[in-house]
Structure formats: structure tokens, C-alpha cells
């Protein structure tokens, strides 16, 4: 069968039945492609988008399920860890001075300094600094004495039963005696914010 382009001349839509076989075949293929394309656009493309959305949702739900399953499978372990964390937190809170213990803290620092061989020049409270969950209570300290006594002082401060941190160390030589040093520092203790609201 030879292809003859002249068979496509003078084709009329009114008389499709009389068209040559090649023209009918070409029209049928064109109509099939158009019906397939329009069917895809009208019916399938929306469903494909819906399928993509549902597949993504399924993946998200599976990940959420895995995470929740992991928590549920280890629930007893998590509860035990929570109890342990609460105990640790309660122990840390007990290391913070209560309102009635704060004045005694100055006595403790004075005792620690004098037993370390230091003389106090200055020991005074500074204004409280309120943080999110605690209140910072700074104390300015200035002492004089030999260098090794400073080490004993700092060591004994660290051994106090209450939390006290030391900051901003400045050591200078005394003008009257080169063996005597001057130490300025700031000690900070902390109080739990909830207790402060009581």
C-alpha cells in the first residue's frame, strides 16, 4: 500500500464514510488521543494530585505513628527517667539558699575567709537580678591576705552546702606590703523564682 497524499484532498466532514482508509485511520487516532488527553485532564489528573497528597499524608502519619510507638513502648523507662529528673531537680533546689538562710550565707563566707587567713575589706549585697526561673543574688567581696589563702578561700566557698559561684576575680599587690595581695571578686548565689513568689 503506497501513501498517496492526494487522497487527503477534498475531504468533507459531511461524508466521512467515503473517506479513504488512511484518512479514517488518522481521524480515529486523532480522536482517540484527544479523548485520552481530555479524559486524563478531566478525571485522572485531579485524582493523581489527590493520590500525591494522600501519599504524603500517609508518610507523615507513619512517621508520627513510629514516634508515638517508640514513646509508648518505652513509657515505663520515660516515667522512671522523669522521676529521676524530678529528684535531681529537687536536690538542686535544696542546694539553693532559702530566704531565711541568705543572711547566714554572709556569716558562712566571713567564717570561710577568716579561717583561710584573710581580712575582709568589703562584703556587701548588691541588688537582686531577676531571671526567668531564678533570682540572682550578687555579693561584692574584697579581701586582703597572702596568695595561698586566696586558694583556700575559693576552695572552702566551693565546699559550702549552698550553691555559690565566684566571678570577676581581680588580684592586685598591696601598696604597703608586697607579700599581701588584694582580691576583689563577686560571689553569686541563687534563689528559685517560685519560692520568691511565695
Give the secondary structure arrangement, pairings included:
Layout lengths: L20 H53 L1 H20 L7 H14 L3 E7 L3 E2 L3 E12 L1 H12 L5 E10 L7 E12 H5 L1
Helix pairs in contact: 3-4
Strand content: 15-25%
Q: What is the radius of gyration?
A: 43 Å
Molecular shape: rod-shaped
CATH fold naming of the largest domain: Alpha-Beta Plaits
Terminus-to-terminus distance: 103 Å
State the domain count. 2
Q: Look at the structure and give the mean pLDDT.
A: 81
Q: Give the C-level CATH assignment of the largest domain.
A: Alpha Beta
Give the topology string: H per helix, E per strand. HHHEEEHEEH
Transmembrane segments: 21-43
Keywords: Membrane, Transmembrane, Transmembrane helix
InterPro entries: PilO (IPR007445), Transl_elong_EF1B/ribsomal_bS6 (IPR014717)
GO biological process, one term: type IV pilus-dependent motility
List keywords for this structure.
53% helix, PilO, five-stranded antiparallel β-sheet, 5 strands, 198 residues, Alpha-Beta Plaits
